[in-house]
Design brief:
InterPro entries: Man-6-P_rcpt, Man6P_isomerase_rcpt-bd_dom_sf, MRH_dom. The chain has 281 residues and is of the alpha+beta class. It contains four helices and 15 strands. Helix 1 runs antiparallel to helix 4.
């Protein structure tokens, strides 16, 4: 009877501590935007020396200038097409949407242009073109291996670049974006009379409920020169910060400590209840 009671008490303690461990794990892998005690222990300030002064930065969100952001990114040693959310500190890896996550084979994401009269093909951090094209096939003789997004002109039959791909996603406020510049020439000029090249802005949105890998929507353009798209994918959702092995250590330590406390408390209670009662005569 007492043995069963001991087992029940131990099981109850473990059931109470298990959700606590799961909660700690979630809050330390970037799934929440709040700052917690353990998170502060595992994100100690980093001293970065700049030409002006030493800067204490505890996260990417603390970087106030482009120079500080660049220095911190170098310290984090992020791979191409990856980024750390400056608010939640979640690690986002977009390589699964690019050629880098497809054994080097190009991946093109289609988007209907609706009233624009053309359909678009978008690449993420890589060119979506499945083969190299001669410069005569590309409007303005662009290098097809560098094209990050394009459409095909129905009149000339040429491919029109709307920006060369880049591998550095950036947060603009709470929005994760990719910007492609240096596409084919627009039909407008700047204030100096020089032709402007086409460019593309892609906003990337986390969507955990999608059945497909990703979906791209055409939002619109300005003067047939600047284009905007939205991509939704579970690949945009944050995971654990890269290289944050300290968090895993703390979580493991908490689980072990919880198990020891639960078993020890149950064992002590069991011994106390097993002691023979004294009878006063």
């Amino acid at each position: 009877m007492i043995s069963k009671l001991y087992q029940r008490i131990t099981l109850l303690v473990l059931l109470i501590l298990a959700p606590l461990c799961i909660y700690v794990f979630n809050t330390n892998t970037g799934m929440s935007g709040d700052i917690h005690f353990l998170d502060s222990l595992t994100h100690l300030p980093i001293a970065i020396e700049t030409p002006e002064k030493n800067v204490q930065i505890s996260s990417l969100g603390d970087a106030k200038t482009p120079e500080e952001e660049l220095l911190l990114e170098n310290l984090l040693q992020l791979d191409e097409c990856t980024i750390v959310n400056p608010l939640s500190r979640g690690f986002i890896d977009l390589r699964g949407l690019s050629a880098g996550g497809n054994e080097g084979r190009p991946i093109g994401w289609g988007a209907k242009g609706y009233d624009s009269g053309v359909n678009f093909t978008i690449g993420i951090c890589s060119s979506p073109m499945k083969k190299l094209h001669d410069k005569s096939e590309i409007q303005d003789g662009m290098n097809s291996s560098l094209i990050g997004a394009y459409y095909k002109d129905p009149k000339s039959g040429q491919y029109v670049s709307i920006g060369e791909f880049n591998t550095v996603p950036k947060f603009r406020g709470r929005k994760l974006t990719l910007t492609y510049d240096g596409g084919s020439f627009c039909n407008i000029r700047d204030e100096n009379g020089d032709k402007i090249r086409k460019s593309t802005l892609i906003t990337l949105t986390c969507d955990r409920e999608m059945h497909s890998k990703a979906a791209v929507s055409y939002i619109g353009n300005s003067n047939d020169c600047s284009y905007m798209f939205e991509m939704r994918s579970h690949h945009v959702c944050p995971t654990a910060v890269k290289g944050n092995s300290t968090n895993a250590f703390w979580i493991f330590l908490i689980i072990i400590a919880s198990a020891v406390i639960g078993i020890s408390s149950g064992n002590i209670l069991y011994k106390q209840m097993k002691k023979p009662k004294r009878i006063n005569i």
